[in-house]
Amino acid sequence: MKKWTRDEMARRVAIDIPDGAYVNLGIGLPTLVANHIPPDREVVLHSENGVLGMGPAPAAGEEDYDLINAGKQPVTLLPGGCYFHHADSFGMMRGGHLDVCVLGAFQVSAKGDLANWHTGAADAIPAVGGAMDLAIGAKKTYVMMEHLTKTGQSKLVPQCTYPLTGVGCVSRVYTDLAVIDLTPDGAQVIDMVEGLAFEELQALTAIALRRA
């Protein structure tokens, strides 16, 4: 089955981020979105460790490890970018000043509940970071994740079985198979990987889908 690559997923997310938006990209897969922001679009990227105005990842050999994102990856800073205290950063997150946050997830429910910080397994290391603040504080919360777990189970579920990060906060999910809006009227498929039939996607998804 054909799937979108990680960079193709990131490019698809970047297309949907409007000009002038203030955006936080979560640790892991969402950080790739920074590399695919259209050059004619001004998007101000925020990192919870206290950076505003990040650019794409630096070229090989040009990394500055004093300039990192929340995932400790080296980043670049665009003209006008700035640094500030961690507390100020969380004030931005909690105060509703971010237009969009893009987070990874273990599970997302049909109602938009998010579970992305702990699987509940005895040997798992819980790591919520600022995810709770972002999920609830941003005006829109998008999720990037693989459609299926390593064992082939749908990550889109009727109800989350892992500890929740936020309730009813996710409005759109980007997987390696599709882009799905979570609305009061149900889950609506707005895009799919080329060659995938709607019926195939539904068979791989644990919640009811409807066409756009």
Structural description of this entry:
15% of the residues lie in helices and 26% in strands. The longest helix has 10 residues, at 6-15. It is globular and about 45 Å long. With 212 residues, the protein is of the alpha/beta class. The strands form 2 sheets. Strands 4-3-2-1-5-8-10-11-12-13 form a 10-stranded mixed sheet. A 3-stranded mixed sheet has the order 7-6-9, with no helix packed on it. A hairpin with a 4-residue loop joins strand 6 and strand 7 (114-115). The protein has helices at residues 6-15, 86-94, 131-137, 198-203; strands at residues 22-25, 44-47, 51-54, 77-83, 100-103, 107-109, 114-115, 140-144, 156-157, 170-174, 178-183, 186-192, 209-211.
- The number of distinct β-strands equals 13
Distance between the termini: 22 Å
Series of secondary-structure elements, N-terminal to C-terminal: HEEEEHEEEHEEEEEHE
Structural class based on helices, strands and sheet pairing? alpha/beta
Summary keywords:
globular; ten-stranded mixed beta sheet; single chain; alpha/beta; three-stranded mixed beta sheet; 26% strand; 212 residues; 15% helix; 4 helices
Short structural description:
The chain has 212 residues and is of the alpha/beta class. The chain contains four helices and 13 strands.
